[in-house]
From TrEMBL:
InterPro entries: DUF6788
Organism: hydrothermal vent metagenome
Domain DUF6788: 29-90
Name of the protein described by the UniProt record: DUF6788 domain-containing protein
Length: 94
């Protein structure tokens, strides 16, 4: 299966933060399908979660669902917001 030229061009134009986000999302999707990346260290775990905004007057809490990537780096737990769950591409494991 070939990749659409517009997608390739969009990836080429991405800055480092967007490329890191794309990498984490791609790796997590592949891990969901059973692929492993031992050379890259521990895996990135992706979780869907609802988030409370903290406003006392908010009647629509919690908000979301949002998707976050979790991994360990230099002995510390790291988290990266990946986007709204509805905005992310689906896989058969969702």
């Amino acid at each position: 299966m070939s990749i659409d030229r517009d997608v390739i061009e969009a990836v080429r134009e991405m800055e480092e933060p967007e490329l890191r986000r794309l990498f984490m999302l791609t790796r997590a999707r592949l891990e969901q399908r059973g692929h492993e990346f031992p050379e890259l260290g521990p895996g990135v775990k992706v979780r869907k979660q609802m988030v409370r905004c903290g406003k006392e007057s908010c009647s629509s809490c919690p908000h979301g669902p949002y998707v976050y990537a979790y991994w360990t780096e230099d002995g510390r737990q790291r988290t990266k917001y990946l986007g709204r769950y509805d905005d992310l591409p689906e896989t058969e494991n969702d």
